[in-house]
Amino acid sequence: MLEIKNITCYYGVICALKDVTITIPDDGIYAIIGANGAGKSTLINSIAGLVTPVSGSIVFDGKEITSIPTKDVIRTGIALCPEGRRIFKNISVYENLVGGAYIMKDKKRIEENVNYVYELFPRLKERHRQLAGTLSGGEQQMLAMGRALMTDPKLLLLDEPSMGLAPNLIDFTFETMVRIHRERHIPSLVVEQNSEMALSVANYAYVLEVGRLTLEGTGEELLASDEVKNKYLGA
Ligand code: ATP
């Protein structure tokens, strides 16, 4: 379970998150929606150790992880699929996947995970020897999601996985998120500007507005909320 308690983050004088408290239990898909600049990436990055909160605490599976380096966060079982993919462009698809499992020692399990990623994304299997930098944007997104699964994570963090994708790939991305949850029972926290898709798959969701949480509820409740409809669903 991930417990974020009263975290506040600044960039210089800009307050990006103010007193944010969220609990992510061991099961389910959780979403954070909000407009540009609402603080969604800051929230994900503070969990991943890429941004240091000025106050508050983040506890994962009973271990305090506030402000610890990203490499140590990953060892606790949290995997990050970052905004903008950040795959290694000069090595192959296969090498990206195996490289993503660098904290794992069990070679057999690494190969099982590669095969699972290829099952989820047959296009990656077809292109396993291709340099990752030559993949299309959608394929790079598949690789970033696949790579995040390579460590057998206990929590998956996804930062704007649908950004820049064509409509059919956006659907596929969210369907895959649901499939991973169903087949591997990995809880996930997804931050998204595509509020409608995120809320349609989320068991529970939060709305961030200029650094503060303003609404929360099940995906269904938020999809039905007039405030969400007016502000985020283009009603
Ligand atoms: P988007 O959907 O556009 O990615 P977001 O909800 O993820 O937005 P953040 O990227 O977390 O929002 O940004 C929150 C606020 O913090 C914004 O006002 C942004 O300009 C500011 N900010 C983010 N990163 C930095 C930085 N490295 N230096 C200064 N200000 C930053």
Automatic annotation (TrEMBL):
Keywords: Amino-acid transport, ATP-binding, Nucleotide-binding, Transport. This is Branched-chain amino acid transport system ATP-binding protein. Belongs to the ABC transporter superfamily. Residues 2-235 form the ABC transporter domain. It comes from Enterocloster lavalensis. GO terms for molecular function: ATP binding; ATP hydrolysis activity; branched-chain amino acid transmembrane transporter activity. InterPro entries: AAA+_ATPase, ABC_transporter-like_ATP-bd, ABC_transporter-like_CS, BCAA_Transport_ATP-bd_LivF, P-loop_NTPase. Pfam families: ABC_tran. One of its GO terms (biological process) is L-amino acid transport.
